[in-house]
Write a structure and sequence with these properties.
Helices cover 33% and strands 21% of the residues. The chain has 415 residues and is of the alpha+beta class. Strands 1, 2, 3, 6, 7, 8, 9, 10 and 11 form a 9-stranded antiparallel beta sheet that branches.
Length: 415
């Protein structure tokens, strides 16, 4: 279980995350995150998820948005159907053959198949905004899928996910059962199919830790590794699966091992004629490697590890969408008095020095040392007015903000 950050970390300033569970935020971080499932009712949450998604939204995506695979999966009783059963060409000017066919989807849904709309954090505007905020709130990359299930149908049998999940019930009712893990805290390369017999036995024989019916506005938190299955009741059911791709301590191990490649002694070839199947020969080399690796670990720099983690994880979620035409107009019309802000959801790190370095997910921007106070204010997340930045005259503020607008760091605060 991850340690809890400082007091107030989960206060009202993290609105997307706080929508996903009821009760005390610090208690969730201490007692549930990564370790226990939690069912929250709509009454406890004091709201609904109607602003995020609906059955009407699903119909629009499936019929009017030119959706293509892999943004759609269809399954029944745990088996995924082939793409060719629900895709085809889109007509004149859109002949690509992997586009979703609404008539085929309708027929499959009518015959009891579950529709899975994938990566809605890339295709549906309210969920794009929600995922951007949630990723910033939680510090972990976010993906969002929707599961729409016909009455009395089950899309997938008991299984576990390799990421944490918030289930947000959108429409209808669905009966959920959640069981303790058979493989605790699975990594991304440790899918449930590696333990399919144990999963089936536990789901059949063990008492569930959650046995509840989710209704619109209810939520369910399922940590990675916890077994779960769901069945629609009495009508069409729809829920969002909000997946948090959890960063783990093993990720630090991987990056430390990657940094070991910088040590010449650890790149040395094994002896000529080495037999990898001989434990005695392996033991001789292993002793040397353990000693060298131990020395490497003692001197490893947190700055170096952080830099590698940044490159690996910051691209997991895109920042808020940037409308190209409107943004180009913002650059062209920039003037003293223009109101700007940091692009929501943009991961960044400012390192003072000469030059000042602004680290972004895909690059690093170098700026003059004299801009450090102005860049700090501009990247604070609070709106500001060009002309009011500290320690720079108006002309230099225009140069700086135009550069940061062009780099996609800043956006109009009215956008």
């Amino acid at each position: 279980m991850s340690p809890v950050p400082g007091a107030g970390w989960l206060a009202d300033g993290r609105p997307a995350l706080r929508r996903c569970f009821a009760g005390d935020a610090e208690e969730f971080a201490s007692n549930y995150w990564g370790s226990r499932a939690l069912f929250s009712t709509a009454a406890e949450l004091s709201g609904s998820f109607d602003d995020l998604f609906s059955l009407e939204a699903a119909d629009e995506l499936l019929s009017r948005r030119g959706l293509r695979t892999p943004f759609l999966r269809i399954a029944k009783n745990g088996s995924v159907v082939g793409d060719s059963q629900f895709t085809g060409a889109g007509g004149v000017g859109a002949e690509i053959g992997d586009q979703v066919r609404d008539d085929k989807v309708a027929a499959l849904f009518a015959s009891g198949h579950t529709v899975v709309l994938q990566a809605l954090h890339r295709t549906w505007p309210p969920l794009i905004d929600f995922a951007t905020q949630l990723s910033a709130d939680a510090g972990h990359p976010v993906q969002i899928n929707a599961y729409i299930t016909p009455a009395e149908s089950q899309g997938f049998s008991a299984h576990y996910d390799v990421h944490d999940v918030f289930v947000l019930q959108i429409a209808g009712e669905k009966h959920w059962t959640v069981h303790e893990p058979v493989h605790v805290d699975p990594l991304r390369n440790q899918p449930w199919t590696d333990h399919s017999q144990a999963v089936a036995a536990a789901a059949r024989d063990q008492q569930p830790v959650v046995d509840a019916v989710l209704r619109p506005g209810d939520s369910l938190y399922v940590p990675r590794g916890f077994l779960h299955s769901a069945k629609a009741l009495g009508g069409v059911s729809a829920h969002l699966t909000v997946g948090l791709h959890t960063m783990t301590r093993y990720l630090l191990v991987q990056e430390l091992a990657a940094l070991a490649a910088d040590q010449p002694e650890l790149r040395t070839a094994l002896p000529l004629g080495f037999d990898p199947g001989d434990p005695a020969q392996v033991a001789t080399e292993l002793d040397k490697v353990v000693a060298l690796l131990t020395d490497h670990l003692r001197t490893a720099s947190s700055d170096d590890v952080a830099a590698r983690l940044q490159r690996r994880t910051w691209s997991g979620n895109r920042p808020a969408p940037l409308p190209p035409l409107a943004h180009a107009a913002s650059i062209a019309n920039l003037a003293l008095g223009t109101s700007l802000r940091l692009r929501p959801g943009l991961r960044h790190r400012l390192v003072p020095g000469d030059p000042v370095r602004l680290h972004l997910p895909d690059r690093t921007i170098s700026l003059p040392k004299t801009t450090v106070d102005a860049v700090t204010r501009a990247c604070s997340g609070e709106p500001f007015t060009v002309g009011d930045l500290p320690a720079l005259d108006p002309a230099d503020q225009l140069v700086l903000t135009r550069r940061l607008l062009t780099e996609g760091v800043l956006v109009s605060s009215t956008a």
